[in-house]
Amino acid sequence: MSETVASVSALIVKTLLANPKVPRDINGSSKIVEDLAFDSLAVMNFVMEIEDTLDVSVPLDRLADIRTIDDLAACIVSLKQAS
Amino acid sequence: MSIFSKYEGLASALASVTAGGGRNPFNVVIEKPISSTVGLIEGRETLLFGTNNYLGLSQSPAAIKAAIAAAEAYGVGTTGSRIANGTQGLHRQLEERLCAFFRRRHCMVFSTGYQANLGTISALAGKDDYLLLDADSHASIYDGSRLGHAQVIRFRHNDADDLHKRLRRLEGTPGAKLVVVEGIYSMMGDVVPMAEFAAVKRETGAWLLADEAHSVGVMGKHGRGVAEADGVEDDVDFVVGTFSKSLGTVGGYCVSNHDGLDLIRLCSRPYMFTASLPPEVIAATMAALTELENHPELRTRLMDNARRLHAGLQAAGLRTGPQASPVVSVILDDVAVAVAFWNRLLDLGVYVNLSLPPATPDQHPLLRTSVMATHTPAEIDKAVDVFATVAREMGLSHAA
What we know:
heterodimer, A: 83 residues, 55% helix, B: alpha/beta
């Protein structure tokens, strides 16, 4: 696997910044719900975009433990390694 | 700190909905139904375009008569669950009637449609299984997934190719894969491409559950839903539905040809730990099912009415979902506009549902209407006129 937490985190930030409503100063430690003002549906829809980019599926129960962009990146990397 | 502190955001959202002096949309009282299509709201006769009473059978004389006779013969309640306190003969009769209607070997009846999804999905998909849910699934499907502890993966709405891609990622992983789709989606009224999902199910060996809550009695030659209309009933392992829409009563069910369904009775908590349906509801439901079977013209009239409303709202310059179905939603961009629009419709005697994000797809507020077979063309035209009037008042009419 070529993806690392840092590279996946950077990809997530880049994907998020394509949305003009997302604050410009986000980074890996930004909190997805609090800092991005995403509701539960917005989080799920955003994760779906990332899933397609990285060809991975993130089960919804895993999202419950994710707070920051880096948390999501770590989760995706572990899922990719497990597959 | 109050136990309700966590709901401060909700309280302020509700306050903003009523800030302009408008009504609380979640507190509208239909004081009395005058007929299936007209109710008394705020003392005024109001056209009902938001009840999901698709065939008008909540006011069926045959169902009312059956309910009265059952209450007189059997009493008004069962006072317990079927597992703990016993099944009554009427429960069995209803399950046999549904088996015959759907041409399936097994049926479980639940006390509500919500519980039917909750009880079926949570029991079928355990912690070592995968649930694949359409992104726009009803809350009862999401809640069922949480109760059952399965791994939950969403696929893009009505997109069988996207489902296929996600199933491919699971190739080689242990555990059953249960795909859940709806016949007609309750917010926008769009219909599932069931044949496409059936093909994916066949190719991948997944299981397929179809929630036909809004499509039974509405679609298919015999009213069995989208799976019947698309000719793929054999590919649908489980059909879940409700009595509280086209059949006009309350309750839910799951039908299947899989013998294992009977085991679900012993592990489905929403089935085991709830009072079972009372006799008058069962009798009314069976009478309504007979009406549904004997009057296919109700479905024809319903779809004619759906097309009339859908075309009328589009001609009035309003944005609706792509296809005419018994659920026709007007899509707006702004919550405050939607709230004002909804209030004005009610002022002018038309009741519809105000649906707000995040309960709606794509974060758009909706004015959701549901059509009935019993609406007259004049009632539909009147509703369209009122929509057009309000749209003009609010500067929202963009007719070509």
